[in-house]
Amino acid sequence: MAITLLFAVSALTFGAMNVLGDPLFNILGPIARDTSNPKSVKLIEKAKNDYNLDKPLPIRYGLWISGFVRGDMGVQFSTDGQPPVTELLKERIPRTVTLLILGQLIAVLVSIPWALLSASRADKFVDRLSTATTFMLVALPGFALAIILKYLFAIRLGWFPLTYRALDPLQTRLFQMLLPGFVIGLPAAAIYQRLLRTDLITTLQEDFILMARSKGVSKPRILFKHALRPSMFSFITVVGLTTGALIGGSIVVETVFRIPGIGSTLVEAVLRHDFPVVLAIVMIVATAFVLINLLIDVVYTIIDPRVHR
Amino acid sequence: MGIKERSTQRRRGVAFAAAALSLALIAGACSSDSDTEPVGTTGASTDDTTTVTEVAATPVDGGTLRYGLEADVDGLNPTTSAFSAPGYVMGHAVFDTLARVAEDGSIVPYLAESFTPSADFKSWTVKLRPGIKFHDGADLNADAVVKAFLLQQGAALVGLAVRPFYPETDAAVKIDDLTVQFNQLDANQYWPSALTSQLGMMPSPLWLDAAAADPTLNQKPVGTGPFMFDSRTADNVTRFVKNPSYWNGSVHLDAVEFYPVPDSADLLDLFNNDGLDALHTTDQTAIKDLKDNGTVTNLLDDTAEESFQMINSQNPPFDDVRVRQALAYATPKAKILELIGLGVSRPADQMFTPESPFFNPAVKQDADEPDKALPLVAAYCAEKGTTINPLLNKPTCTDGKVNMEYQFVGPSVVGLRTTEIFEEGWSVAFNITRDEVNQQDHIQQNALGQSNVIGWRQFGAIDPWADSVWLLCRTVGPISLNWPRYCDPARDTLLLDAQNTDDPAKRSENYKALAQNMHDAYTYIFINHTLWTNSFNENVRGTCDIKTLEGVALKCSNAGLTFLDTTWLDQ
Predict the structure, then answer these.
(1) Residues A150-159: what's their mean pLDDT?
(2) Strand partners, B180
(3) What is the distance between the alpha carbons of residues B94 and B91, in angstroms, rounded to a whole number?
(4) Any bridge partners for residue B101, and if so which?
(5) Least confident of A207-211, A297-301, B82-86
(6) pLDDT score of B318 more than 80
(7) Residue A155: which of B81, B269, B440 has the nearest Cβ?
(8) How many Å lie between the alpha carbon of B208 and the closest alpha carbon of chain A?
(9) A163 to B215: CB separation less than 8 angstroms, yes or no
């Protein structure tokens, strides 16, 4: 099923990329139309050959997909010696993955205690305040949050660096990603908090919780030991599903904070009509999405063995 | 501590659009001599207004300069890559040019030792300084120069700006190990200025060979310059380190790092918050802020680019001068200057600034008179209103107004607001279809003639002869550098005569006539002289201390590019 899905995504994207626009023009620019000049004609022939543009679309797709599964994602549309797409993405994927992990980590670490706090004080002032905050975070567009946090914490307060610098040591680069990580993580944390809070409130009304209370188990122990685990089911589902959305969010965040990851690369590639790069990133994101959801299925079975049965 | 405020009027041959096609290669300047002395004065460069308050200090070695650029570049190979202002800033750190512009505007030999013209000024012999080596150990010699030139001439896009001026064969000929003869199609007494720009940048021949086999090396330049390539992460940071054996004196900085920051507000934030030591920008708001900051050194220059609306005269309806003239009359120039220019940049009427000896005071850009547009459009529509505008694929007139497309670069809030103001003015006589495209498409479509009217920036070559690439009949073609695709043999005569006279009065007369000719053709609607700044924080010193081996002081900044050969950090 997953493989079929990936094939469908690849075929649709490849088709769209080749139908919308002239690949030859995107590679060579005006030279592609300069057919009266023998030098230009040579370049046109070379480009057609290099990018298989003289072959029918299905053949080109076959060549591309077979290269992709072997790790050869083609060459960027450029005559200036840009590195192959695989090399480009090898450099950029780790940054995006780090940013996403950081964002998810922040989201999970913020949302769980936040949800526990809200659930334990349901319908009280703290809960209402946190509800208002979550709605605000969810409603706020990513770019706005990015700009607000950047302005407050990087420009006004100077607590965080303004941008990412690829040459810095790992520790410094991780610190540079912290603020972007919050931009990605906070809206996700708000969603997780809402879900977990609701599930926790439901769980806290279960008989076994009443039993624990009647046994005199402390409130924190009830929350952490008894209520949290059975309330995590939808939380984990959403964490998995949100990862895809976070990849989308990284496009904005990487652009605002100048992190050269796959999000910002995708934006630049779309603007440059650099189809091999767009295709490769779309496929990688789709594959990641499928794999994460497979992983979520596995985690389900660990949390609730009934799923396995 | 140097506090410096400069308003300079200089000419240079880098254009915004030109950049994309490396057209600044042919930037020119005056020269009429042939020795190691300055070879003439830049005819169009005058009247630098400079107020300098600087405390002399001994340069300190060490430190890394962080420089903010308005964009990144595709590559750093001068024979294949299109150098825009950011490309020039980075390129000049690694590559030296055969000639440089002196502080007085003259063109002086740099990597070259001398330039000698033939009697008819169709050939120039360039003698190189001996003993200069590239960063990879290769010698700078005639073979290296010929190789670099021929590669540029043959390059698909970069060569577009070179080929109109040189014969197909023997354009560059080795005379001896250190001497090269350049042969041109036309006599040109001011040719050495071409060697101050991309055409004059000297890359290592070994590196060029390696880059031909492995194009990824185009990102890792090797030249003779004050800095050597260290590392590059595209769209993030490019780092060069000190060349310890630089041939023209010692380099003070340990390294220089270039950060492309396309958003000018971000660029200014980084600069103001210790994220950058220097930057360049044309953003009017940023320039205003930088000028108000008393601790910043601003090297300002509004002579090297003109901002204008450009009209493609090849197809209906703009093949008729009445329609072009009507568009000029309807242009709300005053409003644009007030609302978009913020009073920072100076209005322009022609391609020369008022300080230039070529400035024609009689030429005034027609604009802000919409009433005059109406009868012209009415007459055109009555006569040719059913002709098809091939770009829009519909009649040239509807409801008594001319149908046109206006193309601008986006996504850009400023671009959109500017467009809205233009549309408001033009709409009295024109029905406008907007076409918002990215910069690459903007340039490409314009090169192919797929436009009616567009916003554009160019002109301002060090010497105006180099701007002829935009104006000559010979540069109209399937891929046209004469973007309006307007051919006037009388204009060609003015241009070619102006570059082959040593009589300043005659030159001035020709270029003044050119300004009038361009005005009367109505293919350009001049708006303002584009203002560039190269700005440095107070700890950055010595940028303007550059000299040739002979001690001639050189210009340190020019339309967004600057040289970091002698820059140091007061830590």
Answers:
(1) 89
(2) B126, B174
(3) 5
(4) B107
(5) A297-301
(6) yes
(7) B269
(8) 12
(9) no
Chain A interface with B: residues with Cβ < 8 Å = 25, 28-31, 33-37, 39-40, 43, 78-83, 87, 91, 154-155, 158, 161-167, 258-260, 264-265, 268, 271-273
Scanning every residue of chain B, which has its alpha carbon at the shortest distance from the alpha carbon of A21?
B441
> CB B157 to CB A83 under 8 A?
no
Q: Are B324 and B518 in contact (CB under 8 A)?
A: no
Count of all residues that appear for chain A in the document? 309
Residue A142: band (very low, low, confident or very high) from pLDDT cuts 50, 70, 90: confident
Are residues B54 and B33 part of one domain? yes
**Of residues B18 and A14, more confidently modeled:** A14
Chain B nearest-CA residue for A268: B235
* DSSP conformation class of B504: H
Asked if residue A123 has pLDDT above 50, the reply is: yes
pLDDT, tens only, B148-170 = 999 999 887 788 889 999 999 99
**Concatenated DSSP letters of B79-119:** TTS---HHHHHHHHHH--BSEEEBTTS-EEESSEEEEEE-T
Cα–Cα distance for residue pair A294/A192, rounded to 1 Å: 20
Tell me which chain A residues have a C-beta less than 8 angstroms from the C-beta of B155.
Answer: none
Domain count of the fold of chain B? 2
Q: How far is CA B364 from CA A162, B354, B458, B546, in A?
A: 46, 12, 19, 39
- What is the ipTM metric for this complex? 0.71
Domain limits for position B475: 306-529
Residues of B in contact with A87 (CB under 8 A): 216
From chain B, the residues in CB contact with A91 under 8 A are 233
CATH of the domain at B113: 3.40.190.10
Q: Is B440 an 8 Å CB contact of chain A? A: yes
For residue A259, the chain B residue with the least C-alpha distance is: B236
Check B444 against A25: CB less than 8 A apart: yes
Report the C-alpha gap between B484 and B213 in whole angstroms.
38
Q: Mark whether B194 and B339 lie in a shared domain.
A: no
Q: What are the pLDDT digits (tens) for A197-230?
A: 999 999 988 889 888 888 888 888 888 888 888 8
Which residues in B lie closer than 8 A to residue A82 (C-beta atoms)?
74-75, 215-216, 219, 234
Asked if B207 and B192 sit in the same domain, the reply is yes
Longest dimension (CA), chain B: 73
CA–CA gap between residue B229 and residue A19 (Å, rounded): 40
Q: Which residue of B has its CA nearest to A157?
A: B273
Same domain (yes/no): B157, B54: yes
Residues B177 and B234 in one domain: yes
User: Distance between CA atoms of B268 and B3, rounded to whole angstroms?
Assistant: 19
B295 and B339 together in one domain: no
Task: Show the domains of chain A with their CATH numbers.
Answer: 2-69 (no CATH), 92-303 (1.10.3720.10)
Query: In this predicted model, what pLDDT tens digit does every residue of B174-211 receive, in sequence order?
Result: 999 999 999 999 999 999 999 999 999 999 999 999 99
* Structure tokens that stand for B507 in this block: 């030159």
More confident residue, B492 or B438: B492
Q: Select from B219, B239, B478 the Cβ nearest to the Cβ of A33.
A: B478
C-alpha B472/C-alpha B478 separation (Å) is 15
Q: Which of B497, B512, B529 is the last residue of a domain?
A: B529
Question: What pLDDT does residue B257 have?
Answer: 96
Cβ-in-10-Å burial (0-12, 13-18, 19+) of A69 comes to exposed
Q: What is the residue-averaged pLDDT of chain B?
A: 88
B319 and B298 co-located in one domain: no
Selected residue of A167, A168, A256 to mutate for chain B interface (largest B Cβ count, 10 A): A167
CB contact under 8 A, A81 and B447: no
Whether chain A has a CB inside 8 Å of the CB on B265: the answer is no
Residues of chain B positioned with their CB less than 8 A from the CB of A268: 235
